[in-house]
Amino acid sequence: MQLQINDESLPVYEALASPVRLSIIRLLSKNKMNVKELAHALNLSSPITTMHISKLEKANIIKTERVGQQKISSLRVDKIEINFPEKIFNAFDTKESAIPVGHYTNYLVEPTCGLATANYFIGKVDEPKYFMDADRMDAQILWFTKGFVEYQTPNLLNEQENLEMMEISLELSSEFPFSNDNWPSDITFYLNEHELGTWTSPGDFADIRGKYTPDWYPDNLNQYGLLKTIRIMAHGTYMDGEPMSDFTIEDLKKTNSDLWKLRVAVQEDAENVGGCTIFGKHFGNYDQDIKIKLYYS
């Protein structure tokens, strides 16, 4: 689960602001339990325990299902990330562009793989040839186990504008045949054929439906990813503030290109070959395509 600093996330923050509810989370991390078992473990009455369970259900942290005559509770998530508002770099002007997920210009993928628009799957899943289907230009989600997709976008700066920093943001997860919250994958990023670094995605998530994932899309398939932001700066490349590599903005400017060529890859020799899913508009938790933001002086 990934949260923002906004009112929509308040139910989660409120649910976590209780020692009793934190104890329930710890208990359910070990076993599924019914209300009576939880109440006994917490030394509370069943009605009070039920109230705490309801609070956690409302926040989508746990789920309760009827099994025979019992209601059994279990965890829906195993990790929560909080995205703070982006820092504003006031000293620079900016130019932004966006690349739809289906607008890749080169690819080499291996199954499991597939694409979908906001309304339907494109061709048959797990057949790479459909990555060249004409409808792929309308794709809003794609996934593959090994290989890469590559995008190109114009450099919008003119000769008088000096690039100070580049920011790339996109929503990503691993790729499992259906879904698996614990399925690490090493996803590597390249810009103009220079390696920016590798991020290990923790899993392929379907614990809850993606905020923008269309209703027709099956519940048991990847529902959302994590929004990752890569910044290429004067002293190196970072993802969400953590160092990725020593590749700098000066290294990028030496390529002297009118086009930015972005590749997202899962290498065959990676330690964790767990695939990649890229979410665009109308899928996942962020209503955006792949965003490129240039900071210049």
From TrEMBL:
PROSITE patterns: HTH_ARSR_2 (PS50987). Keywords: DNA-binding, Transcription, Transcription regulation. SMART domains: HTH_ARSR. This is ArsR/SmtB family transcription factor. It comes from Enterococcus lemanii. Gene3D superfamilies: Winged helix-like DNA-binding domain superfamily/Winged helix DNA-binding domain (1.10.10.10). Residues 1-95 form the HTH arsR-type domain. PANTHER family: TRANSCRIPTIONAL REGULATOR, ARSR FAMILY (PTHR33154), TRANSCRIPTIONAL REPRESSOR SDPR (PTHR33154:SF33). InterPro entries: ArsR-like_HTH, HTH_ArsR_DNA-bd_dom, HTH_MetalResp_TranReg, UCP030050_HTH, WH-like_DNA-bd_sf, WH_DNA-bd_sf.
